[in-house]
Amino acid sequence: DAGVIQSPRHEVTEMGQEVTLRCKPISGHNSLFWYRQTMMRGLELLIYFNNNVPIDDSGMPEDRFSAKMPNASFSTLKIQPSEPRDSAVYFCASSLDTSGGQGVKTQYFGPGTRLLVL
Amino acid sequence: GQNIDQPTEMTATEGAIVQINCTYQTSGFNGLFWYQQHAGEAPTFLSYNVLDGLEEKGRFSSFLSRSKGYSYLLLKELQMKDSASYLCAVRARSSGGYNKLIFGAGTRLAVHP
Hints:
The complex is a heterodimer.
Chain A: E1 5-7, E2 10-13, E3 19-24, E4 31-38, E5 42-50, E6 53-56, E7 65-71, E8 74-79, E9 88-95, E10 108-109, E11 113-117
Parallel strand pairs in A: 2-11
Antiparallel strand pairs in A: 1-3, 3-8, 4-5, 4-9, 5-6, 7-8, 9-10, 9-11
Chain B: E1 3-5, E2 9-13, E3 18-25, E4 29-37, E5 44-49, E6 53-57, E7 60-65, E8 70-75, E9 84-93, E10 99-103, E11 107-112
Parallel strand pairs in B: 2-11
Antiparallel strand pairs in B: 1-3, 3-8, 4-5, 4-9, 6-7, 7-8, 9-10, 9-11
């Protein structure tokens, strides 16, 4: 079975450019999570979708970040404009939640996108 | 607030046993996970505890004491491939009524011959 798929795996861009990260969750999973990982701050939850609806976006750093989930098999995380401090590894994870957002189960992580903003 | 503490680094010898501790202070505690993350890779699920006690899974065991806000991950018969970061993650219920995972900074374990 295919796991969580993320693209691109690596992204190098210049400050001010728009960056779009993509994620395909595991088929049948109904919860999707975007995380950011840095040496300084560890693994931080950015936003959490359940049944394509954003449940918690309190971790989104600022208005430059936006995320969408137009259907059950696809999500995007966009940074516009990007800044050097956005350099990090961005992970997408999915899980099967049978309790309407109440029961976060084991999360399965994608390989991550390594973003470098120059 | 939410706070999760685990040691930054540990070293151990191949074949030995190592215990990685995690203490937490969270509101709405609703379970604790351990994840393994090799350098440059994604975290992978190791164990889940929601009730007090020990959960054993092969060479890995995880313990939880809810009253003490304490968990540990026990790795037996260490192998070189166990060199990785081990992330403690608490599942907490928010004021909005939904659960989410809050990760600790991770413990980097180095296994040497």
